[in-house]
Amino acid sequence: MRKLLAGLVAAGSMLVATPAQAAVAQPGLTQARVTDAWAMTRGSSRVIVAVIDTGVSALPDLAGRLLPGRDFVNHDNDASDDNGHGTMAATVIAAAGGNRTGIAGVCWSCRILPVKVLNAKGGGSYTDIALGIRYAADRGAAVISLSLGGSDDSPLLRDAVAYAGSKGALVVAAAGNRGVSAPHYPAALPGVLAVGGVTPTGARYEWSNFGSWVAVTAPGCNPAQGPSGAVGPYCGTSSATPFVAGVAGLLASTDPAPTAGQIRSALVATRSRTSRLVDAGAALRALPLDGDVVRPFAAFGALRSVVRGRVTVTASAADQHGVSRVQLYAGGRLIATDTTAPYSFAWQSAPRTGLVPLELRVYDRRGNLTVVRRTVRADNTAPALRLVKSGRTVTARAADPSGIARLELVVNGKVTARSVAATRRFTLPARARTVVVRAVDRAGNVRVVNGKLGG
Q: How far apart are CA 347 and CA 327, in angstroms?
């Protein structure tokens, strides 16, 4: 039996930009809180997501992460894409982020297993789809993404889905694009996570199938890359499905590795109550924490080596299951605790002058702790400054443990000379009414001495 795709791009066409397009608006990532999830994980190369579709073409955005696959249409091992649909699905899942190329997929580090079961026109058989599901399961796919389907139930598909489940794979499939409540297969099968499509406001797209059998929804229009690398809009439940598959890949990337059932439960339990929209960040936090021994990432933000007065200390922290709190210690004393990113602390360094050990303590939700240390010099004391006058000259000598930033000669209220040296001989103007010398240390402390004294 031949079956058609769940849906290509809206209206059967795709508007494309140049292959080198670097900046693409992707509001769906924010809408489904994928950007929040990225603070916890951006995927793992140990996670394989199978794309069972028209094949997947090699692109720079998938470089090093596109595995050898299988073509069940032409019965060979060349799973390249002769339609475009499968490549677009793969880039929604796993296009590399932060490389100024194409788009950012949901799971940056996940690997893609291409399985071609649909021909160049987008047609295919339940037999080939079932074979493709089994093939993906046998090759260790944690997630199997199917942006395809038909209106008829099938024992072949049921058996293949059950087999994939027995191998530990989560099967994700498109709900279909007829705008009806009638079941669409394999999405409506037990054990399959059926995905519908919603608008940027969370409303159901009129073309998206619906019903109690649709477990979750995702943004129904997303930018994607075709086989040439060109970027364009990709709409339909065919687009929403790989989006969810990418989110599932993020969840599968955590340690200890969750089961397919745990991933499904987390996705369903944290979906929006009204639209069933997936919430990637909340789903990650909903995974079981038992057995998590991975310490969170922690790092100081930009911080000067010499500081004075009130200092803002920033920190970066991330964890696969979420950070519970970040603490700043100075000289062994707790300064403050922050529980929400971006992490920032106000530390009053005065009246200290000298080396101060700083310490960041980052705890994840399981209680795993990472400690990072840095030493800064607190300088809240003005530099020493001595002047020696001789005729129309004044020699200034400054000293400070942090170093001298500059010396300034101020005549009649205006700076008339500067020096970055710690010692400098200044010549005084003949008509100088007021003369002072300022010494500024590297921390910004200032010492002022009357230039007409001291000699």
A: 12
